[in-house]
Every structure is written in C-alpha cells, then in structure tokens.
Amino acid sequence: GAVVSQHPSWVICKSGTSVKIECRSLDFQATTMFWYRQFPKQSLMLMATSNEGSKATYEQGVEKDKFLINHASLTLSTLTVTSAHPEDSSFYICSAAGDTDTQYFGPGTRLTVL
Amino acid sequence: AQRVTQPEKLLSVFKGAPVELKCNYSYSGSPELFWYVQYSRQRLQLLLRHISRESIKGFTADLNKGETSFHLKKPFAQEEDSAMYYCALKGGGAQKLVFGQGTRLTINP
C-alpha cells in the first residue's frame, strides 16, 4: 500500500511554455502533499507544502507565481511551472502523507526546458 | 534553523564489513529523525525512524541528543545495501522534512 504516482515521468518543453506535473496517492487519502526539487547530485529541497482544499505554503525563495500548486482533492496535487526557462530544468519529486504522517514519495518527474 | 549534515558524500566498504553512515543535525527542540534510502532507479523510501527504535534490513540508528547525531549502522554489509541514503529531520510539530545531502554507499564484493 501507500503508493504515490507522478505524471509525466519526464517532459521536455520550450522556454516560455508552462508545464503541469501531477501527483496522485493511489491507495490512500493524502491530507498533505509536498513538492521537492532535486538538482543533479544534490539533495531534495522542499519547495512547498499543500493541504487539501487550502493554499500551499511555499518555502523561502520559491516563487509562488512561478510554481503554482493545486491540491483540489485528497488524492491529487498538481505543480504547474509557468513560463518555464532553462534554469527550471530539474527533477521534481512529490510526496504524500495521510493519517500516519509518514511521507510516501513519488518516482519523480524530470523536466528539461530548451 | 533546522539543518542536517551528512559529512560523507561517498562511502565504500567491502561485503561483510561493518558500515556506519554519519548524520548530524542542528535543531533547538526535540526533533524526529529519519533515514530514507533510494536504490538504483527506484523512488525514495523510508528505511527507519528514531521513534520506532526498530531494525530494518539489519540497519539501526540511535538518536544521540548530546552529540546531535543519528548515525546509521549495520554490522555486516551486503551488496544489496548499495544505495543513496538520506538522513532527514522533522521538528516543532511541522510536517515538512529537512534532508541532508545524502551519502552514496557502495558495497564491494
């Protein structure tokens, strides 16, 4: 149990376009979802925390207008990278937590902006 | 501020040898500490948490508040233990995790 999926697993887009990444909890209700960013050979950096039905809480230095997060249901959160630029290229990972507060991680999405 | 330090980026030991992955933290209150593991081409998964005080896959970790450490240990390493290991901290009732930089463990045959 406690499986988290992400879609797509990888995406390539042109500079200036927007990209949406989905994170789903497949077999449990996720009251809280987290979005991380991971650069090559570096650790995971938390971008934002989202609770179902409320606005996401962004970490210091993360532009909320650039990284739009929606958590409309207990099984789905989306991250939209707006007007993407090459420096936004990275590995984006989501995690989800339910009643036990243990975070279960998705497989990640590799974004490449040309 | 919350901070997790894993001083070793790379660690290589021979099969059957003991292994210790170091983790030190900085936090003024009472933290929850975790070890996560990421095997090749797999997602990050929880290995163990200090409040459980359990041994998973032969690994143990003890929280030492005096030394602010949470080192991960295994007496006899196995080849399948080769992976990336991340130490993480949660504190102050917050839900978010703060991760260390990670240690890549390689077990040589």
Mean pLDDT score of chain B, rounded?
92
Order of helices and strands of chain B: EEEEEEEEEEE
SS-based structural class of chain B? mainly beta
Let me know the number of strands of chain A: 11
Low-confidence stretches of chain B: none
What percent of residues of chain A adopt helix (DSSP H or I)? under 10%
Report the C-alpha radius of gyration of chain B, rounded.
13 Å
Number of helices of chain B: 0
Strand content of chain A: over 45%
**Inertia-based shape of chain A:** globular
Number of helices of chain A: 0
Which of globular, elongated, flat, extended, rod-shaped describes the shape of chain B? globular
Query: N- to C-terminal separation of chain B?
Result: 41 Å
Low-pLDDT ranges of chain A: none
Alpha carbon gyration radius of chain A:
13 Å
SSE order of chain A in H/E notation? EEEEEEEEEEE
Distance between the termini of chain A: 37 Å
Mind describing the biggest β-sheet of chain B? 6 strands, mixed
Describe this structure in words.
The complex is a heterodimer of chains A (114) and B (109). Chain A has strands at residues 4-7, 10-13, 19-25, 32-38, 44-51, 57-58, 67-73, 76-81, 90-97, 103-105, 109-113. Chain A has 114 residues and is mostly beta strands. In chain A, strand 5 (44-51) and strand 6 form a beta hairpin. Chain B has strands at 3-5, 10-14, 19-21, 24-26, 32-38, 45-49, 60-61, 72-74, 83-90, 98-99, 103-108. Chain B is built from no helices and eleven strands. Chain B is globular, with a radius of gyration of 13 Å. The mean pLDDT of chain B is 92. Chain B is an all-beta fold. The A-B interface holds A 4, 32, 34, 42-46, 49, 93, 95, 97, 101-108 and B 42-46, 49, 86, 95-102.
Features:
heterodimer, A: 114 residues, mainly beta, 7-stranded mixed β-sheet, 4-stranded antiparallel β-sheet, 11 strands, B: mainly beta, 6-stranded mixed β-sheet, 3-stranded antiparallel β-sheet, 43% strand
